[in-house]
């Protein structure tokens, strides 16, 4: 059949209705193109979970149709899932130099991804994959070498901005290719997928250059050692800090695994320029150096319990001690949910007697995502027929829709998607198809996707009220009797002061339950255990207002 | 000996180095006066803890010297601990009418506190207790009837602001008594204890009146049902919402236990005036009412899992459903740590199709604590010899010290206290004495102070990796052999895909350990259990990178 009768499907498997684990699927007949494969950091209630990645069952089923995976930039929420996803798909990947460098760095921690499948992409040089012609265009963001993508498809051109802000004075001089967007807009764009993270924020974001100015002021003012914590991937901020350090005659020490990785990769690939060859010093040397000659770049801006800054703040870092009079610059704001951890770190630093520079005290951080006026600019330039907010929770998607409405778009021309939504596009129509399998895969320890809902529920309950184990042995033959126990073991559950009476009461409770059951001709394990669970549960709730997990362990001998 | 040679001790048992559980002790010879007795809401790592209150061992030892407990205002972090603290001390308490009303409401949930010990206090009417003359003065805060205290002591006058902001246009017309503060300042104030919560925030706070204006605008604009969530204790905000509702012809439904309590108490005592006698409707009636005729006042502004708004947002509230087109006003900002929960509620509401009004969209909340310029004003008026920041974490206390420095105070004239610090004041000197016993008491379920560090550690580990229980029965007599098991039970710990092999491996591991032990003439429980824990722990860590709690359960039959 003639292609024109077919339609394009756009399926977000991650990054919609949520911030994190971005993954977009574009499907036209036998051609599938994927954009990004990120991770998300677990919600508090995902106890003990390390990472969350998108469920890619849908892609696994159609693996042989996937023509390639294109990466917008090197942030964890766009590349962090690749080490888990790519080995299952074995597909060619495309991205800019730094982005691929950071991906390879992730793989080097595991078995490397085959070179033959890795393709460096030049913005402005389209590549043909299946029925798509994919072209990257430069955007400005909080990491260098970030791009958005244009997909020229049989039904029309679709553009995805990727994460972006409109920074007119980017540190590396690589401007956002607004002209390109405008040109495509003239030709006609069918649909625009747009970063909606900051859709609730009025006005425009501030340029990274402003942060550089503020950093320089603080660095010039500092008397003791300077410790700056920021996101490892913010190469531009790191560059500006290093430049300022050089100008005031300070050496730079890079601490923290991810920070070391990024600085190494970015330097090797020429995205980070060291003003002096010998400006970097090893953390082992820090002890012997004069504080006023030193700038430490470190991870831990989010108060992560194991990060370098956190260990420094708690005086438990092997090489670097924070001293009274040192200056700690928190060049990042807490990601929602991290406020308490960050606050704790800051308080520890004050306790030591350090000066702590936070956002309240000057422009030491700016967002990497477009505010309302920048989003409007991009929509006006692209002039798309349809709008699809991406990279946002529903509050951000709805905020984006309000912006679209303000620019004259009807609600039905703006698709608010969910995970697995199938947006079907024809040249003149946008509609929702049947949802595909989508969701979250939890990564815990070494296993992938091995932690189910039940287990999490259990951990939650364990965390709340602990566990009470009842051990008792019953005779094999009639008359059934209790050979030993019931013994009670508790963990994470406390019997409070009137322990004895409570334990005695609990045992009586159990024995009463058993008595009835032991009369029967046949002992029914399930029934006995359920009854014990119920009667003891009721008893403990009345006495302690707590609901520990109750585990009856029965032996028959 | 002549009094003048004695000294005054000021001891914070709560509310310093932290936000919450405020409790200040003033001690002069045989006279002790206490101010406030609050609770603090638990940190995330205090798994399953409901409340945290100050450790008052110090006061219990000196109970017969305590002349009275004075309360500044009715917020939880100032009165929430009283139902646990007062029964242990049985001392007279003093406070303004509304404050005591709220305290009694708390007690009515338990056994009431003896009327004979409760004294209503009039600002401006000093009371003599022991060696102190205590006088309340009005301050403006986010709850009516808030006061600070002046303590006239043998060594001089000490003033504690309590929680305050300088609101020149308070809703109830009860202005902050700045003149009083100035007059005392003229006479000479020895030390000022001052609210330092917002010491990092420049400028001044905005008047509660501004919130009223914004609320009215939204309430007039709304088409469907209006649901407003705020702190229950913010009587002024509730008053303004009710007034606006009355003006647009909406009835008001009050939902949520604490909200109902406060509205009842405040109305009874005349702090909340209902513009129409029949303006309140029961939540049972809401179902039959036209949405545009209704304003629901509810708890849940912090996304608390069990609060009314949270249940409405998840469509699980018995009487009140949120419908598309309803307007939900979040008239509060998240307390640090609650951001994620609040965000989740907001997203649920958008999912339903409600319009959600947050602080980003207009002045629907203001802080109740003084910013830098207000703190400066109070210091200038009081002109104290010494400064003691209270009600703040160390970052806020240090922020307050910066303000003090800016006004010409030396560091040594500003006391940065910790829990249990003893600040010793003589007419011309401020120094630190020996710290007294102080800290936190955890309240969990019905018990008080019954949850120890170990239990919390256990809960943490359970929450991370769960628990694995090993059950096995051994013979009583030699040759010792395994009669049953080892059986393995796991909760919150998952054996992943290769379950069987892992379980088998674990059993082998245990049997090997047992085998060695069973050779011995005497079975040593402790040794056996320890060995099982170690060998199995090692095995599971290697295979799964997790450390569940391992509980060997041995029976001998």
Automatic annotation (TrEMBL), chains A, B:
SUPFAM superfamilies: Metallo-hydrolase/oxidoreductase (SSF56281). Its cofactor is Ca(2+); Zn(2+). GO terms for cellular component: cytoplasm. Ca(2+) binds at residues 48, 50, 444. The active site is at 195 (proton donor), 369 (proton acceptor). PANTHER family: RIBONUCLEASE J. Homodimer, may be a subunit of the RNA degradosome. HAMAP family: RNase_J_bact. Belongs to the metallo-beta-lactamase superfamily. RNA-metabolizing metallo-beta-lactamase-like family. Bacterial RNase J subfamily. An RNase that has 5'-3' exonuclease and possibly endonuclease activity. Involved in maturation of rRNA and in some organisms also mRNA maturation and/or decay. This is Ribonuclease J. The lineage of its organism: Bacteria, Bacillati, Bacillota, Clostridia, Eubacteriales.
